[in-house]
Amino acid sequence: MRPDTEVNRTRILIAARRVFSEAGEGVPMTRVARHAGVSVVTLYRRFPTRDLLVADVHTRQWEECLAVHAQLLRHPDPAWALREWLHRLCACQVSDQGYTKAFVDAMLAGRGLDHERLTTDRTVATLLSRAQAAGTLRADLAVTDVRLAIAGNQGIVAAAGRNAAAASRRYVTHMLRSFQSWEGATRRG
User: Fold this and answer.
1) DSSP designation for 8
2) Residue 180, SS3?
3) How many angstroms separate the CA atoms of 119 and 124, rounded?
4) Residues in Cβ contact with 187 at an 8 Å cutoff, skipping those fewer than 6 apart
5) How far does Cα 47 stand from its chain's mean position?
6) Is 75 helix (H, G, I), strand (E, B) or coil?
């Protein structure tokens, strides 16, 4: 592959991610090309269909998610790691109308992006069970409760408009307090 070909491909992927994040994956391909600084012909030469471009952007974002999952699974405090994961995902719900929206929609619907969804469920389940074993999260919490928190945040983001980031942070803070084990909170207090 020629060096300029790889440079253009990278520029297109970076621009597509930014544009999809801001406006969703249905934006005109001309807008992606304009943001990448390439012609529409060059964009279609590298990515003959929108689906191929979206898939490549999703793949790169999923690889980043996997790195975060691995980092959080290694953290010595599983309750902190789960809180961090939920904060990050909910912050992405505010800022990313591309991959995060597609991922959350699949997660809440229980179909689509099956590999990503099931891998994430395993990560959340592992963090939950470790934190419950440590007594820091309520014993009755399940992955479905975490999904409910994500669904609630989706509603908060939609309703809060320009205040979505602050409203989301406040909502997630309240939800995470409800996840705490009374015994664990008393021992730390």
Assistant:
1) H
2) strand
3) 9
4) 135
5) 24
6) coil
